[in-house]
Structures are given as C-alpha cells and as structure tokens.
TrEMBL record:
The family this protein is said to belong to: Belongs to the major facilitator superfamily. Phosphate:H(+) symporter (TC 2.A.1.9) family.
Name of the featured protein: Major facilitator superfamily (MFS) profile domain-containing protein
Keyword vocabulary terms for this entry: Cell membrane, Membrane, Phosphate transport, Symport, Transmembrane, Transmembrane helix, Transport
Localization per Swiss-Prot or TrEMBL: Cell membrane
Principal location class: membrane
Reaction catalysed by this enzyme: phosphate(in) + H(+)(in) = phosphate(out) + H(+)(out)
Amino acid sequence: MAKDQLQVLNALDVAKTQLYHFTAIVIAGMGFFTDAYDLFCISLVTKLLGRIYYHHEGAPKPGILPPGISAAVNGVAFVGTLSGQLFFGWLGDKMGRKRVYGMTLMIMVICSIASGLSFGKTPSGVIATLCFFRFWLGFGIGGDYPLSATIMSEYANKKTRGAFIAAVFAMQGFGILAGGIVALVVSGAFKNAYPAPIYSVNNEGSTPQEADIVWRIILMFGAIPALLTYYWRMKMPETARYTALVAKNATKAASDMSKVLNVEIEAEDDKIEKIVEIQGNNFGLFTKEFLHRHGLHLLGTTSTWFLLDIAFYSQNLFQKDIFSKIGWIPHPEKMNALDEVFKIAKAQTLIALCSTVPGYWFTVAFIDRMGRFAIQLMGFFFMTVFMFALAIPYNHWTKKENRFGFVVMYSLTFFFANFGPNATTFVVPAEIFPARLRSTCHGISAAAGKAGAIVGAFGFLYAAQSTDPSKVDAGYPTGIGVKNALIVLGCVNFLGMLFTLLVPESKGKSLEEMSKENEGEEEITKGENEKTIPV
C-alpha cells in the first residue's frame, strides 16, 4: 500500500521513533492529565461540601449533599464534556486540529480556577456557581478527547501508533493519582494546622472554617499542568494528514513534516488534485457510503465506549461509598471533616497506584503486540468476572476479615478496565475513520462514552442505596443495594464484550488502509500505469 500513498504520509508511517513523538505524547498527555484530575477530583470533596453547606444543627450524622445536588455536582462536568466532544470533534475537522487545540486548553485553565472561586451568599448560590463553571470546564475537557487522539494518531508511525495514543490516554491515570495526592497533602496540612474533634463529640467544631479553603485549592490545582503546556501546544504544526487530505495543501504538509522528520519530502500537489476528483472519497458523515463503509465500526466504537463508561465512572466516582459500606473508611460521625477528605483520598490514591496506573501502562506495552481487539475483549471479560466475583458473595466481602480481599478484587476490575477497554475505546476511533471525519467520529464515540458516564454517575448514586429504608442516606429513595448494583455492572461489562466483535483490528496498518482513503490513490496509480502500457 505504501507505494500508492502520498510520500509525506508514507514518511510518517515508516518514521523511526524520534524525540518529536515523545514531545507530542507529553504535550497531548498533559491535557489528559488535567482532564482526569478535573473530572475525578470532585469525588474527593463532595463529602466535604455536604458537611460545610448542608449541615443541620443537632443531626446525628454530618451533612451530605441532597440527592439532586449531589447528582448535579458529580454529573454536570460530564454533560459539558459530552457537549464539548461533539462540538470540538466537529470543529477539529472543519478548522484543523491545531487551531482548536489551544481553545480547549484555555477553557480548561480558566474554568478550573473559576470552579475554586465559586462564591455565594447561600449554599445554593455556591453550588450553582460551582456547577456552572464545572459545566464549561467539562466543555473544554470534551474537546481534548478527539483532538488529542487524532493529533497523536496522525503524527505516529504505524508500527507503534497504538502505544503512542495509549500513552497519551495513560496520562489519565497519573491525573487520577495526582488528584488523590493533592487532596492528601492539602487535607493533611490543614488537618495538622487546624485540629478538630470528631463529629459525634462536637458537631459544629468538627468542620473548621478553614475547610472551605481545602476543596477550593484541590479544584484549582488542575489549572497548573494545563497552563504549563499551552505554549508548546501552540508551537506544534498542524498534522500532515489534515493539511494534505482535508485542507488539500500538499506543499504545506511536506514542508511541515520535512522540518519535523529532518528529511526531504516531495509535495505531490498533482496527486492531491487527482484524489479530490475521485468521488468515492468525498462522502460525508450522513451518507449511505459512510453507513456502508463505517456504519458498523461507528456502532462498535460508540456502544463499547458507552458500556465501558457506565461501569468505569460509577466505580471511580462512588468508590468512597463502597469503601464506607465495607468499613474501609470509618463512619462519617467518627471523623472530622478534614480527616474524612484525607481518608477518602488515601483510599483512592492506593487504588490508583496499585491498579489504575499500572493497567494503563500495560496497555501501552502490549497494544502493538496483542492488538486492540484482543486487549479490549480480554479487559471486558475479566471486568465481568471480577464484578460478579464481588457481587455474588457480597456479604462475604463485608466481613471485617475479608475486606482486604474485597479491595484486591475491586482493584483488579480497575486494572483490567485500563489494561482493556478504557484505553482501547480511546485508541481505535482515532485510527479507523477517514481524515476529514476522524475528529468528528472520535468525538461521537467519546460522547457516547460520556453518556454512559452520566448513566453511571446519576444511576449508581441512587441504585447503590440500601433496600432497607432505615439504612438509606438522607434524602434518597431506597435503591437496589450495592450487591445488586455490582451485578448490573457485571452484565453491562458482558454486553461490552459482545459489542467488541464490531470493532476492527488496526494493528500495524496505516490510517489510510483502515479508512480506505488510499482506494482513491490506488485508482490514480492504476490509471497512471495504464497510460504507460503501449497500445
């Protein structure tokens, strides 16, 4: 196929791993570091927000966020992310990856800071302001998904492309880990500086006034890594595939990549003009030709990401509730406000360190050996197995002597989510669609994932409530219980395994082979060869 390809694209496909590859990983990856930090750090402070703003004098338990407000605080960023994925995914194909890339980063920086500066005269005012800025924070984060994946896929060589895209996504693990560490450091420092009694001893005194600063610092910290990479993000040239295949400027593509690769590349403007003339390569998203060529692929990428995120985000956002249920975190009335933040952060940091982060990097190491399909299928399979292993004998795991085993099993579901579909659902949509629709289709796939995250975030909040009305959190209706909620998540993972069968394998193939864009190039080459045959 390489002989039929534009020289600039072939040069990228066969390029040896160089410094610019790692530079691109860091630049795109720091955006993902920020994405994960911003999306998941809210779960570390929701209990604190409840204690500060929804405390009732004389209540036997600390204040918690009412159900609707808790769902809004946890879920509003996902709504923004879904919107941003669709909008910026489309815009990335219309305006170019680079031009849109800076916009998303600045939105993230501004809204991270603004989230921590959420003020109001009443608790409702503070929460409303926080939700407003977290929606727009999510909007910026949403744009980072299709743009980072598309840019990395279009810069990478075909031999190690999977590892490079997965490495960008793996920065999400470090973002989750950083969220836990920042919360540990900040809450630990304030806890030592402003000691307070536990709630059952002194209701009012268990939440020092300074606790209101803690959650703000944790939320605002997410702006720092994004701000540090803004300059380098703006210095990156537009990807050659966008410049050549979408903007139809082969000279600019060859010039940009000659500087990046340090090789001489022929422009081939005449070949670009001929590719434009071939109607088979001009179909849009809402056409029969797209449906015929990529309809099942898009169904596969959207459905698997949707199902994966139902399980993944419900586990991540509400692991603090699960840890409380099994006794790994003490009852809230037996802690003060800052101690509760510290213990939740400690539990989530341990899970991230022992299972989340290693799982991402196992994918980086093996994705170009095992292939995307095998890793995704394996990941969904083991997530299903471990989720049922947690759910069916759930009462066994709640006994004090078995809690360590529960945490190990729970960690393994995270490990195989990340050494599995959480990484591959991000990688594959950036590889299998045409350049002019690549960012859009990745955005649609990612938005389906965030729809799943919303289902997980809102649904699990209610579903995990006890079936016993006396054990339900204040303001919530009875649910199906943690055990049955875990069974549902196990079934969701099994469905993900089935829909993986719709996803094609892209290991070792060029982007043009996967998207069939070089079918037009083959026609050109064939036509040129026919002209040379003597009659």
